[in-house]
Amino acid sequence: MMLGEPSFQTWISRSYFVILIAFTSLSLGLDLATGEQRFLITVPLLSMSSQNIGTTNYVVIQADRLSNPVGPEIQFNEGSRALGRFRGGALSEDWKTAAYIAVLAACEAVGEDPRTWSVTLKNVSSAYLSEGPSASAAIAVAMVAALKRDGILPGVVMTGAVDLIGRILPVGALPEKIQGAAAGGFSTVLIPQGQTKTRDWDLSPLAEDLRVTIVEVSTLREAYERMTGKSY
Question: What is the CATH number of domain 2-228?
Fold first, then answer.
């Protein structure tokens, strides 16, 4: 994924997200006109800027339970100020496809019929365009949290892709993303299983220097327990 300058991103991490979480970390509403339930949750992500610098951004997820099983409806809030004061960034097709898979994986994880859900996602970042599948695991965790009425723990962030059966898949640029997590004030970073040490990097010395704890996860269930402190 491509994002903008890290100074802007750090500002989001330390000010906007605090305000955003206060209102949208987990809320539940009922549309009296339609009888539909609405859930709203925000989750942090790790990304790469166009300058190959690790940064953080946030996705706001609105999930509406439909009275009739006509879904799943997956919408992307690009360029709009809905769901918060900032505009949603543009999203590539592979980002959208991965997010769609994340929603299906979340529904499968908790036994929900995806046809009964309409989901809107807004990616809050400084970039015009965000790309790649590495946000999808965190999106799946957040979707499950919304359905279970749990919240995301502070100080924890994740990077990784997810497949339809909830396996966490490898992603790239982890050293830069660990640096971005530390710069954004995160103390725990979840990464895919087996990616702490590869032929391209060893994250342990970097994490120790930055005082960041790296936790490998292989499934959506493991990621959920680490990001929420709860189980499903």
Answer: 3.30.230.10
